[in-house]
């Protein structure tokens, strides 16, 4: 049985990485995002306790869970706090990712592809662990509309400053999907990608 290729997916804020990931999922691919792992990790009591010890109890919402907006405010302009948070989270995310891949590889029949989305894939130097890398692109105006629609334009420049620019990311990736157009356009590109790389 041929092992399905492990694909590292990334892209700029507002490029539509989640839409691309969903398109792969609806076609039977195994998919996971780093953000989904972090969301799950924040439900762990031991991690919540460490967060409260470091940042204070007001990072918790009324439900007792980590409020990611409050946490982001604490670390955004504080390099030491951000470094601490990343130092805590990254090993945990890595362990969850590796466990997920091991589990997916036991599936019979295997999925066409294994796709993992990480917004800082290249910036964190993670690309070497994937068989191929795929970047999602979109026109700047399209991205800004999407970001504005979800109320995320505030401090966009600072957030993007931590990320590679489009040209550098696209040059580093093996392939690109342009998500500037319609859902149908996106689906055609995903279908073509799967047809090309499924089955190893």
Structure description:
The protein is of the alpha/beta class. It has two domains: 1-29 and 111-200, Rossmann fold; 37-109, no CATH class. The protein is built from nine helices and five strands. It has helices at residues 17-26, 34-41, 45-55, 68-76, 79-104, 140-149, 156-161, 166-172, 183-197; strands at 5-11, 30-33, 113-117, 132-137, 175-178. Helix 2 (34-41) crosses helix 5 (79-104). The longest helix is centred in the middle third of the chain and has 26 residues, at 79-104. It is globular and about 50 Å long.
Short note summarizing the structure:
This protein has about 200 residues and is an alpha/beta fold. It has helices at about 15-25, 35-40, 45-55, 70-75, 80-105, 140-150, 155-160, 165-170, 185-195, and strands at about 5-10, 30-35, 115, 130-135, 175-180.
* N to C succession of SSEs: EHEHHHHEEHHHEH
Poorly predicted residue ranges? none
Q: What is the CATH class name of the largest domain?
A: Alpha Beta
Number of strands: 5
Q: What is the residue-averaged pLDDT? A: 90
